Amino acid sequence: MGLTRADSILLSKQAQAGTEYHEAWHRVANLLITDKLRNQIYNRYRSRVKDHSLSDSTIDEIQADNFMDF
Fold it and tell me: What is the pLDDT along the chain (70 residues), one digit of tens a residue?
């Protein structure tokens, strides 16, 4: 289990391997990617997977999982 907060990342000792990367993605994305660019990324993803019903938070979780796997 991991949790991203405004000023930190909390990780449980029982967290799955790679959780630190998943949570780091959320933190870095919120700090370094502008809202405008983030929306462009989300919309491109929806177009690429042909699913315009995906929420921003769902796409953000998918991206964090992909970064963890990377």
Answer: 666 666 667 777 887 888 888 888 988 888 899 999 999 999 999 999 999 999 999 999 999 999 999 8
Residues 6+ away with beta carbon under 8 Å from 15: 1, 2
Q: Quick one: DSSP state of residue 6?
A: S
Domain tally, the chain: 1
CA 12 to chain centre: 18
What's the whole-model pTM score? 0.78
Widest distance between CA atoms in the chain: 37
C-alpha distances (whole Å) from 33 to each of 12, 28, 54 are 27, 8, 20
Which domain range does residue 12 map to?
Answer: 2-69
